Amino acid sequence: MQPLHKLFDEWCNGQEDWYKTKVYIETTHSQGSVESDARGWVTKEELVSKMGRDAAQKMILYKEQHRPDECRDHPDAPGIQDRMIF
User: Fold this and answer.
1) What is the CA angle 78-84-86, rounded to 5?
2) What is the 3-state secondary structure (H, E, C) of the chain?
3) What is the pTM of this model?
């Protein structure tokens, strides 16, 4: 019940108007960037710097095995394994 309690608190803090709640404002007006979220194509180097070497290697291995459509050659360096984007 903890999540419902938090939502109720948000609703009360928003003067019983969902459009004024922090939850609504954050979900409808968010602006992401490549540095702060997982969207966009990144190289192995960038993944390692964001996630750490072990996590990046696990993610790349998973994508190669289960989501090969999410592994592509870099447009500036086609065929070079170190420049693949994920």
Assistant:
1) 135
2) CHHHHHHHHHHHHCCCCHHHCHHHHHHHCCCCCCCCCCCCCCEHHHHHHHHCHHHHHHHHHHHHHHCHHHCECECCECCCHHHCEC
3) 0.51
